[in-house]
Amino acid sequence: MPENLSLQGNRVSSRYVPLRFRFILISSCLLIILLGSIAFLTSIQQSRSIRAQAERRGLAMARSLAATSAVALATYNYIALEQCANRAITDSETIYVIIHDKEGRVAGYSARPDLQGKILDDAVSRKALSSMEPIAQVASSMVEGIQVMDVAIPVFLPGSEMRWGTVRVGLSLEMMQDQIRQTQMIIVGTGFLALVFGIFVSSWAARRITRPLGQLMHATVEAAQGNLNQEIDVITGDEVEVLAANFRTMIREILAQREQLEHQLVEIMHLQRYTEKLLATMKDGLI
């Protein structure tokens, strides 16, 4: 599209930006907003899904441990509870298993025998011990310092409403965070490719739209400079083609009016010469 065409004496705005560039810029911004929204929503949805899986796994482990440790809690068998907590660590995703007695003291803590008989006073422990229902919390491991899903279940003996203890399972959220990061990287890479492709498509579409407009702009400049004998061949099948047809009609009307004016001018000149000859003849007759 001709971008440097201008009429002498006409002022062009200093903020002039070609239509093609505006079209590409708007399309790119819309793509960025769309892809960013998809990435954000996907990350949230995946985080919720993985967290729900961790909660379900933690609840299943905690219920199993609660069933096997109920008798040991009722008899204050700390050795059995410590062994139960240590045996429950079967993979790297299970960070800790804690079994509290009914007074809230640590009856068994996997790989931490030094904490047996002590009361944990952190906020997560207080909330886990005060809840009468299964509860899941996101916390930081006191050992590794990583984020964990702390799932706690109160232990009740059959036929009794007395709480005899609490079983807590801490599952690592590192895998969840790694999966989220991988998904985000995939979305960013795919989004970048989609953005590049979208820019190319926008540029192609913009050229198809602005090229005929550029032809019309060139034609208006030529017409303003007096060149009315030009062919305007724009075939787009849309409003631009109608605009070009109307412009051709206007040019033909201008040409017809100019020819009519030229014809009238010739007639006026003939009449002027006739009048001059008549006056000269009358002057000669008077002499």
Features:
alpha+beta, rod-shaped, disordered N terminus, Beta-Lactamase, 2 domains, 287 residues
Your description of this structure?
α1 runs antiparallel to α4. The protein is α+β, with helices and mostly antiparallel strands and 287 residues long. The chain contains five helices and five strands, in the order ααββαβββαα. The radius of gyration is 44 Å and the shape is rod-shaped. A five-stranded antiparallel β-sheet has the order 2-1-5-4-3. It has two domains: 37-181, Beta-Lactamase, CATH 3.30.450.20; 228-287. β1 and β2 (106-109) form a beta hairpin. The protein starts with 18 loop residues before the first helix and ends with a helix.
Topology:
Blueprint: H1 19-74, H2 78-87, E1 94-101, E2 106-109, H3 123-130, E3 135-140, E4 147-156, E5 163-172, H4 174-224, H5 239-286
Antiparallel strand pairs: 1-2, 1-5, 3-4, 4-5
Helix pairs in contact: 1-2, 1-4, 4-5
Strand order of the largest sheet: 2-1-5-4-3
CATH class of the largest domain: Alpha Beta
Give the domain tally.
2
Largest sheet: 5 strands, antiparallel
Number of helices: 5
Short description:
By secondary structure, the chain is an alpha+beta fold. The protein has helices at residues 19-74, 78-87, 123-130, 174-224, 239-286, and strands at 94-101, 106-109, 135-140, 147-156, 163-172.
